[in-house]
Amino acid sequence: MIRTRVAFLIPSLIAHGAERQLCELVRGMDKRRFEVHVVVFYGPEAHGENHLWGETEGIPESTWHCLHKRRGGAGYLTALPRLLALLRRIQPDVLHGYMDANLPALLLGRLLGRPVAWGIRRTSSDVSLLDGRSRWLLRISARLSRFTDLIIFNSEAGQASHQAMGMRGPRMLVIPNGFDVIRFAPALPSGLEQRRAWNLSAEAPLIGIVGRLEPVKDHPTFLRAAARIVQDWPEARFVCVGSGPSAYSETLKRQAESLGLRDSVLWPGACTDMPAVYNALTVLALSSTDEGFPNVLGEAMACGIPCVSTRAGDSERLVGDPEAVVDPGDDQALAAAISRLLGEPPASRTEKGMAQRARMCSEFSTEILVRRTEAALASLRRVPSTRPFPAGA
Description:
Elements: E1 4-10, H1 17-28, E2 34-40, H2 53-56, E3 62-66, H3 75-90, E4 94-98, H4 102-112, E5 116-120, H5 132-144, E6 150-153, H6 156-164, E7 172-174, H7 188-197, E8 206-210, H8 219-232, E9 237-241, H9 246-258, E10 265-269, H10 274-280, E11 283-286, H11 295-302, E12 307-310, H12 315-319, E13 325-326, H13 331-342, H14 346-363, H15 366-378
Parallel strand pairs: 1-2, 1-4, 2-3, 4-5, 5-6, 6-7, 8-9, 8-11, 9-10, 11-12, 12-13
């Protein structure tokens, strides 16, 4: 059997959702049909300890390359020639870019005469929330999208918003994120152990938010909702799992204290044992203003944990419960949806959680993600480009 040689290009292996999804995809791909190479622009030194390079060692039959690119645009002056030389050695049948590596993938794919797939991992529904660099990249990507061979979005909301911005690939499809339903599964003992590590009782209602401490995750709305919830549930506790810039983290902690939540909110930072974190929760909340296909919702639901979310990206599609989805920025509605779940008998919450887990297993497992992606990439194998690269690009 002739294998399809795929080269994935991704900026970094920082421990975020898109990077974890790529690791799971590579892990699950059928190596009898695919020879897999992953080229990472930035090395582990760029992210301290918050990276996934250690996990790559446990992914069999895959080759991982690192360019150790320097920060800033000038770093491309040396990184791109090295990348071109590497790709000439690999001779991939397909190039698959992820996020900021999409444009380099298109450039080098056209130079090598190989088909190019883009991976779009966010919605970007409100361009005003992006920094200048991100807005510029979006405009350029929209103009050059017609020269790709395939664009894969991880959410229907992402496809719709990018089309509204002018993205017009010759072939575009949605492949939702996939979740490891073996690793992320109900496990009460590990959840109780995590609660003990946080000095919490087994009975206290625990509402968690999981995500980077950055404005798009809208922790202020979550904290305002928490202040409303403790009025009716004074024994409730809240945990903000994730790390972020120290200045912004301190701002959030000051807000929590001003809301009277100093003794009610935990800030453990980034956690490595996420299945234990999810299993410790009574409810998981997502307050983001912009998402693609939120991994935290899928992982929590695979653990049987009920979720409440804002209408960001494909959250509403993923949660599947209209009463558990609210508008972004509406802390009153977020608090009401969480309180509604807290007021249900534990058996009812468990039943809801297990129904959500069943959906994850049948519709959003890693296996489904892998098979859909494999079929899409195999269809591109050694398709010569018929679209000339634009002059001056």
